[in-house]
Amino acid sequence: MTGQSSGADAPRRFLFLDASARPDGNSVRLARLAAESSLPAGAEQQWLRLDDHPLPPFRDLRHIGDGSYPEPTGHERTLLDATLAATDLVFVAPLYWYSLPTSAKLYLDHWSAWLREPGAAFRDGMRGGTIWGVTVLAGEGHLADPLVGTLRLTAEYMGMRWGGVLLGNGTRPGDVLGDERALIAAKSFFEG
Fold first, then answer.
1. What ranges in 39-179 are assigned the alpha helix state H?
2. Which overall architecture, per CATH, does domain 10-191 show?
3. Among 7, 45, 100, 130, fewest CB within 10 Å belongs to which?
């Protein structure tokens, strides 16, 4: 979130992190509608599908040897650089077993290493940014409480703003387009 210190006139940069297991799933459709309708004027957007940038399993090295992690390379470097370049992170993540999909959780696990990456200044770079969530589930909204809590608490821990979550309902591809409440909310979601 290096853009946080670049001045009030700098455009916001939204990084959409697609954690869907299905290409063009309901969460992505809802997020795209929200982006088309409510991003601030002049905002930049980048979309990364986490399945196209697979990360290795996270290994906790804090108490092994000198506790350092290898410098990020490949997909991990791509995700770290994109994350630090953004002012706003949008987790586009369908609800899987009441929480984040595996790819989104693994991405967050790697933050533990990035916090210790010399030269990355990850915590400072993230401070002042905003985390958002867009999720679609089959059922009542309260079922997403664990997913929402993970993102909200992550924002709090990192000194970031919690932008909120846009909830939609659907199961089969395209179902969310019939959720009038979600479609209306999408039109002003990023204005908050």
1. 74-85, 102-114, 122-126, 145-157
2. 3-Layer(aba) Sandwich (3.40)
3. 7
